[in-house]
Design brief:
Radius of gyration: 22 Å
Largest sheet: 6 strands, antiparallel
Oligomer: single chain
Strand content: 15-25%
Distance between the termini: 39 Å
Structural class: alpha+beta
Low-confidence stretches: 1-12, 188-195
Number of helices: 6
Helix content: 25-40%
Number of strands: 6
Mean pLDDT: 81
Length: 214
């Protein structure tokens, strides 16, 4: 029988069964803590690159959902122990950052024709992606790849970014395989004896049975 994809699949993405029973919410909290601790260092580094102190980053959300698709190519990095991360800056932000990086006297955002992303813009996105990935795992554990993230539920991190007068976003998608890797690396363990606990709870739960004789 052929499987027909329905609206249900779009509303409720697939959860990788390998994550069942694993402390994925702990990984989410740990990533939030890592980002919060690293924001000052990240901001300082990027301010040095663009030679401007008018640059800020704030965390908007870290949620379990399917990887998001953007309007332009994203940087995808693969972890040596398995799993991938997808990094994308919004186009106006990327253009603004590169203008500052090269100390351009004219903003490309003032011209519609100049707002097309160039190879230089994507190289800067690569540099930024590697910087953010190094916060999650050592830089030498990441390799660029052309693979696409699966549609399984992963973690999507949304950041609001301001660069002088330009407001933009950075979206970081972490696939389910990388969540498994991070779970192993951090030494987090699944709930012990989950089947035994479930069985015990089920046996101790009172059930009222109503019968009707016809």
């Amino acid at each position: 029988m052929e499987y027909i994809k329905s609206d249900f699949d779009n509303k409720y993405p697939i959860l990788n069964v390998e994550l069942l029973g694993k402390p994925i919410h702990t990984i989410k909290d740990e990533l939030a803590n890592i980002l919060n601790r690293s924001l000052t260092e990240l901001i300082d580094q990027i301010q040095k690159w663009i030679k401007s102190t008018e640059f800020t980053i704030s965390i908007v959300s870290i949620d379990f959902q399917s990887p998001q698709q953007g309007q332009h190519s994203a940087l995808t990095l693969k972890h040596d122990d398995g799993g991938m991360i997808n990094f994308r800056c919004s186009a106006p932000l990327l253009i603004s950052l590169l203008d500052r990086f090269y100390n351009s006297p004219v903003s490309r955002l003032n011209s519609v024709k100049s707002q097309v992303l160039t190879a230089s813009d994507f190289r800067l996105q690569q540099r930024l992606g590697h910087l953010f990935a190094s916060v999650i795992a050592p830089e030498d554990m990441w390799n660029e790849c052309d693979s696409s993230l699966s549609g399984d539920i992963g973690l999507v991190i949304q950041l609001d970014v301001s660069c002088e007068d330009t407001l933009g976003t950075i979206t970081i998608c972490i696939d389910s395989s990388l969540i498994q890797t991070l779970t192993t690396v951090t030494g987090l363990q699944p709930i012990a004896n989950i089947n035994e606990q479930f069985t015990k709870q089920l046996n101790s739960t009172k059930v009222v049975l109503n019968t009707i004789f016809v």
